[in-house]
Amino acid sequence: VEAKTGNIYGYEVLARIYDEKENKYIPAYQFINNAIKYGLVEEIDKMIQEKAIKYLSEKKLNKCLFLNMSKNFIYKTKNLENLYNLCVSNGLKPENVYLEITEEEAILDFKNVKGTIQHGRSLGFKYAIDDFGAGYSNFVYLKHFNVDIIKIDGALVANIHQDLDNQIIVENIIRIAKHKNIKVLAEMVELEEEKDVLIKLGVDYLQGYLFGKPEKEVKE
């Protein structure tokens, strides 16, 4: 949601598998690791993208879409072009689609990520660095990556109203991001007190259970 107004800015797509025997959802990292092991992760990426884009198109939800993608998918030029064609064929503007790259991937595979972002932006897509501040933070990389949004990791957000150190870290992330004309989104916001502090610090967008839990279908 937009921090200042509370209006919905966009939706993030999540993949979950439901275990009927255990009557619970399987954490994403478990089945994604198996998908990588058996070479199925790109197919999962494509399936999720197709379902999400068609859903937004059918429901005529004029909002942004945030897509998490595996590096197996995102580094291949053909995959980005196919995603572009999927958006266009369903009436979704590529500039309303944010492709998320984790901070860990951005730093550990700097050269490939930089080239990928350049190509994706040439197609109209926007980019977000996910989990920023999760342990790999190096502000120098913001100088080289042409991204639109930084998503502050939930570890820095949790109980931020009681943690002066995290407030200082987040304040500096926001200051540097704004200098680069990069928007800032805070993840995993669950408490009103957290929201109030984050708004005071100057974040642009907020995401978390305080505003809505994962749903099979989006709620406007």
TrEMBL record:
UniProt cross-references to Pfam families, sorted A to Z: EAL (PF00563)
MF terms in GO: cyclic-guanylate-specific phosphodiesterase activity
UniProt xrefs under InterPro entries: Cyclic-di-GMP_PDE-like, EAL_dom, EAL_sf
Signal peptide annotation: none
Domain EAL: 1-220
Name used for this protein in its record: Eal/ggdef domain protein
